[in-house]
Amino acid sequence: MHDQRDLRGHWWLPGNRDERVVGGVLSYHPTDGLELDVFDSLTHHASDAFKISEDGEPPVVDRILGITDDGDRVTLDTCQRTFKRVVNGSEVIRPETFLVTRALLGEHFHDEIQFESVGMQLEALHRWFSRSGLNLDLDPDAGEQETNGTVEKQASEPVVSAQYTYPDSETVVSDDLTVHFDPGITVERGRSTTVKFSETTSIEVGPRWSEDTISLNRTQTVLRKIQLFLALGLQEPVQPIEITGYYESGGEQPEASVEILTNSSAEDTVSENSHPQELLFLLPDIEEEFESVLDTWIKSFEELAPVLNIYFKTIYDDPDLITMYLLRRATLEAYYRTRICANQPGGPSLDHTGFEEPQADYDTIKALLGEETEKSFDVQLEEIFERHSDTASKVPDQVVDWVSEAHSSIDSLLEGTQNSSFALYRRSENLAIIFNIVILSEIGLSPDRIATFIKTN
């Protein structure tokens, strides 16, 4: 999924293939996402062109179908058209460009896109899963031969013996969904004496009951939540490598699959110079509570979205020291308003602070920090810590003492001296510790387990 692709082919609107087919190129780029460039309009006449909406937004085409020069079927879902007009002498050519939300390679879908399941491979997933079935013997016994009652070792080329046993998989049930974590291995033979082993782990989301199907929209939402859950544990960006949809085919093969490319998988959501934080947890660290913790994360994500959207900017973006502090402080203020002051009227709307934007939303952060509140940020931190007193009582006293140093005013820290930079860094790290306590408590980990993670980090 990270490789750039250019798929040349012919494209048309559903139900319009007999009347209008246009050549064009579907491009996927790790930075720019998905884009379809067609050499002429998909409609016959200018009067049939897609209309501009009343608010001036470019029109959205629900579905575009195509077939590549290699004969592969393609379905493009939710395409936003941009406008182009080229005059060549007296002839007006109307090429069009569409920003594509999703491309499904391998089939034409005319109705709502439904699958039996959707699987995804992620970077760093196998490291987080931490189960290996590969056993390598780097010094196997050399061959032996008996001559006149004496056993002699035969000289031979170095040999490596490899055995693989599939590790246990994990299945989590969340309402009417099942989530499977399946470890596996790929073997690539190189030259005559080389073989490359790659252990992988995939995630597959499907309906709880086998006779049901699940919409692509819903599976992508769940997979996105799981992707961010892994980013939380690893404290580093996690990106999809491949997404595959499995469905029942009416053809000779009862089961079929399509590769799914999405605009959100483009790497513009991740800075090239991101700063991974200290590892928070791996699967073995939460193995006993894994099913309940992941289920809680999936169910509570929407409620905590205003908080998490800001928090994941600290992982997926490349903020400088001041911005990192502001983001972490904004995260805790958002949590305070969402959980502790949820019933109080007023306050800014946090719904639009999606972390997928390549840079921090500075206006939102300023609005959060600049609005006058009845209680200072220091008091908010104290109330947050009091809410999680069971966990706070189990962490080292040093951590509790650090909380008192995370003051709300940063005016004295913005002078640019080395001492102020160190102080700002320390206060930013203090806020990170507080939020780790908060979010790990929210997803159902025990105070003892959380205290262990805080001590480790």
Describe the structure.
Pfam families: ApeA_NTD1. InterPro entries: ApeA_NTD. Residues 8-297 form the ApeA N-terminal domain. Residues 139-158 are annotated as: Disordered. This is ApeA N-terminal domain-containing protein. The structure is a single chain. The protein folds into three domains: 5-105, no CATH class; 114-139 and 158-265; 283-456, no CATH class. The longest helix is centred in the last third of the chain and has 25 residues, at 418-442. It has helices at 125-129, 216-234, 290-311, 313-316, 321-340, 362-370, 377-387, 389-392, 397-403, 418-442, 447-456; strands at 5-12, 22-29, 33-38, 60-68, 73-82, 86-88, 91-93, 96-105, 114-115, 117-122, 134-137, 144-147, 150-153, 161-164, 170-174, 177-189, 195-207, 214-215, 240-248, 255-262. It is 30% helix and 29% strand. The model is unreliable at 46-53, 266-275 and 347-366 (pLDDT under 50). It is globular and about 75 Å long. It has a six-stranded antiparallel β-barrel with strand order 1-2-3-8-5-4. It contains eleven helices and 20 strands. The chain has 457 residues and is α+β, with helices and mostly antiparallel strands. The two termini are 33 Å apart.
Name some characteristics of this structure.
ApeA_NTD, 20 strands, alpha+beta, single chain, two-stranded antiparallel sheet, ApeA N-terminal domain-containing protein, 457 residues, 3 domains, 30% helix, 6-stranded antiparallel beta barrel, globular
In total, the number of strands is: 20
Instruction: Output the radius of gyration.
Output: 27 Å
The fraction of residues in strands falls at 25-35%
Total domain modules? 3
- Number of H- or I-type helical stretches: 11
Strand order of the largest sheet: 1-2-3-8-5-4
